[in-house]
């Protein structure tokens, strides 16, 4: 019984290390999106210029979701932009 307990404890320790490595990897991947969300949330109600790989967008930041930003352009057009496509915010 003691041998089985020791084996299970080793397996649990190994799994905990793997979980910690995965959590660190996820944090690295989502950090840029979290920073962009924080910047955009601070700009709600203000005009922002947002650069993407597809071009620039400028307008009033209306709302920020988990993975998108809602922009109202001066023309009245509504843009729902994935945060992952943002390369710069001014």
What can you tell me about this protein's structure?
It is a single chain. With 90 residues, the protein is of the alpha+beta class. It has one helix and five strands. A five-stranded antiparallel beta sheet has the order 4-3-2-1-5. A hairpin with a 3-residue loop joins β2 (55-64) and β3. The longest helix has 41 residues, at 2-42. The model has no long low-confidence stretch (mean pLDDT 92).
Please give the structural blueprint.
Layout lengths: L1 H41 L4 E6 L2 E10 L3 E5 L5 E5 L3 E4 L1
Antiparallel strand pairs: 1-2, 1-5, 2-3, 3-4
**Number of DSSP helices?**
1
How would a crystallographer describe the biggest sheet? 5 strands, antiparallel
- Extended strand count: 5
User: Per the principal axes of the C-alpha atoms, what is the gross shape?
Assistant: rod-shaped
User: Unreliable segments (pLDDT under 50, ≥5 consecutive)?
Assistant: none
The whole-angstrom Rg is: 21 Å
Structural class: alpha+beta
Strand content: 25-35%
* Average pLDDT score: 92
H-E string: HEEEEE
Strands of the widest sheet, in order across it, are 4-3-2-1-5
C-alpha end-to-end distance: 63 Å
The helix fraction, in percent, is 40-55%
